[in-house]
Amino acid sequence: MKPGDALVVIDPQVDFCPGGALAVADGDAVMAPIAALSAAFATVVVTQDWHPAGHSSFASSHAGAAPFSTMTMAYGEQVLWPDHCIQRSAGAGFHPAVIPAVDRARLILRKGINPAVDSYSAFFENDKVTRTGLAGALRDLGVRRCVFVGLAYDFCVAWSALDAVREGFGAVVLKDHARAIGMPVSGGRTTVDVAEAGFAAAGVVLG
Ligand SMILES: [Zn+2]
Questions:
Q1: pLDDT at 2 over 90
Q2: Cα of 77 to ligand 1 centre, how many Å?
Q3: Cα 206–121–109 angle (5° rounding)?
Q4: Does 15 participate in catalysis according to the annotation?
Q5: What is the topology classification, in CATH, of domain 5-53+83-206?
Q6: Of 19, 64, 102, 172, which has the fewest CB atoms closer than 10 Å, so is most exposed?
Q7: How does pLDDT run across 97-119, given as a tens digit for each residue?
Q8: Residue limits of the Isochorismatase-like domain (predicted)?
Q9: Cis peptide preceding 152, ω within 30 of 0
Q10: Active site residue 28
Q11: What distance in angstroms lies between residue 130's CA and the mean position of ligand 1's atoms?
Q12: How many of the other CB atoms lie within 10 Å of CB of 141?
């Protein structure tokens, strides 16, 4: 790790781990390794998906919509998820094994608070225009490169890493400290393939 590096831990929450409302397979396996890794970084940031009840990204908010289907919103296509990470619910809490990393965090950034717009990325809401404030905070802290870990690799980690580059930061994704949802998309590909094509095009380094 270099001066100017920040560890950005994406959504290490109970609902994204096995047994949770939007479980990522094997997601709990990365929590203790992330906690250990965080000790090597002077700057640690943790994001927390933090939705109001009835959020527009929930399938339950749209009559007849099934979880994991897609819907066209005013800001573009949106996957509709099971209800998850509702503010102050147990599922929105951090996984117990990652707490040492949360304790070291200079900043806990909550996202997905806007009822009408989801936020996969730590930097922008899904309209790709509304900023979360993270880029300015990182610049204030002298951060030049972000190292991303957490959940889910092909959604919130990927969108955050791509937006880090867009904001002028170097971006590294540690794949062994992340786990993917892996939804099928057209052409026999998955959301993992889409994410990794995006990484290659943008210069995100896979570590
Ligand atoms: Zn969410």
A1: no
A2: 15
A3: 110
A4: no
A5: Rossmann fold (3.40.50)
A6: 64
A7: 999 999 999 999 999 999 999 99
A8: 6-176
A9: yes
A10: no
A11: 16
A12: 14
